[in-house]
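Q: I'm building a small set of examples for a reading group on sequence design. Run inverse folding on the following structure and report the sequence directly after it, with nothing in between.
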């Protein structure tokens, strides 16, 4: 007699991009409220979610593993122990994808918010989870999050979960942290500044074998709302107006160049295209691929 499943399949999905194999890894989900959005009423946001058959704001937290030959690169590290049992599963899913943390040679962060960087270090011991990895991040990120004056201006929650977290999590990597402004930071990986969500928020364009993938970070948090309404900002944006401008620019780039895109908060695994019709956008998920 067939047994009844008691857990979901591992949230690991592979997608070849030229010489790279890109693996989407889920860290879990974050359940949030409508108040986290700026520029949209709760009534409209509920209506848009309902039209997509969703009753709550459950935000995927994704990371992406890049393998090319013997090279192992991780984009984002998930949320570690900062958000309870619904998230913080990246290390387990990394191993399910066949990679041990010590094999990761480079970690790229789109920015230093805790759902992206809090998995760098074990919260209990203070030791690096990725002992052999170089940490690569835009120069504006440590400049902002390590600024005592900026920290003092934040709310208590911002000081604890963002400023203090960024300092604690990156501490073991200080002697192997590489900062950049833009351009090709590793062969085939181009940094595209998309500032506003944070001062150094960055998208990464992966190019290999004539194929391109735009990993756009937190350009979108709630796709049901922000894709059709790119002017909707988030309360966690350090500069909401700049975040909206960056989103519009990234949307235009993705649609005009017909790029394959994915992001940290698109519904897992997140690969798809941005379609444009009469100035409006729609996200079209890519069909599941059975083989590499």
């Amino acid at each position: 007699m067939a047994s009844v499943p008691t857990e979901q399949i591992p949230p690991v999905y592979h997608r070849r991009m030229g010489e790279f194999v890109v693996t989407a890894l889920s860290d879990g989900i974050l359940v949030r409220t409508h108040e986290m959005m700026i520029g949209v009423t709760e009534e409209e946001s509920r209506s848009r979610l309902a039209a997509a058959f969703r009753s709550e704001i459950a935000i995927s937290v994704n990371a992406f593993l890049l393998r090319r030959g013997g090279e192992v690169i991780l984009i984002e590290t998930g949320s570690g122990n900062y958000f309870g049992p619904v998230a913080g599963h990246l290390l387990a899913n990394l191993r399910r994808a066949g990679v041990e943390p010590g094999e990761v040679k480079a970690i790229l962060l789109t920015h230093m918010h805790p759902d992206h960087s809090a998995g760098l270090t074990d919260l209990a011991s203070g030791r690096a989870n990725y002992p052999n990895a170089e940490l690569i991040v835009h120069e504006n990120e440590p400049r902002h999050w390590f600024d005592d004056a900026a920290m003092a201006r934040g709310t208590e929650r911002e000081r604890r979960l963002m400023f203090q977290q960024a300092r604690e999590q990156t501490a073991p990597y200080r002697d192997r942290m590489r900062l950049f402004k833009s351009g090709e930071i590793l062969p085939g990986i181009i940094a595209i500044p998309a500032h506003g969500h944070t001062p150094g928020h960055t998208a990464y364009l992966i190019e290999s074998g004539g194929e391109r993938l735009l990993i756009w970070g937190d350009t979108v948090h709630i796709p049901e709302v922000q894709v059709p309404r790119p002017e909707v900002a988030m309360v966690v944006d350090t500069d909401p107006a700049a975040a909206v401008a960056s989103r519009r620019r990234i949307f235009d780039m993705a649609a005009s160049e017909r790029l394959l895109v994915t992001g940290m908060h698109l519904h897992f695994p997140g690969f798809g295209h941005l379609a444009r019709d009469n100035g409006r956008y729609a996200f079209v998920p890519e069909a599941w691929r059975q083989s590499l």
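The longest helix spans residues 240-256.
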